[in-house]
Amino acid sequence: MKTTLQQWGNSQGVRLPKVLVDGLGVKVGTPVMVELSADRSQITITPCTASRTVRGRYRIEDLVAASAPKAFRGEHDWGGAQGKEAW
Question: What is the 3-state secondary structure (H, E, C) of 24-70?
Answer without folding.
Answer: HCCCCCCCEEEEECCCCCCEEEEECCCCCEECCCEEHHHHHHHCCHH
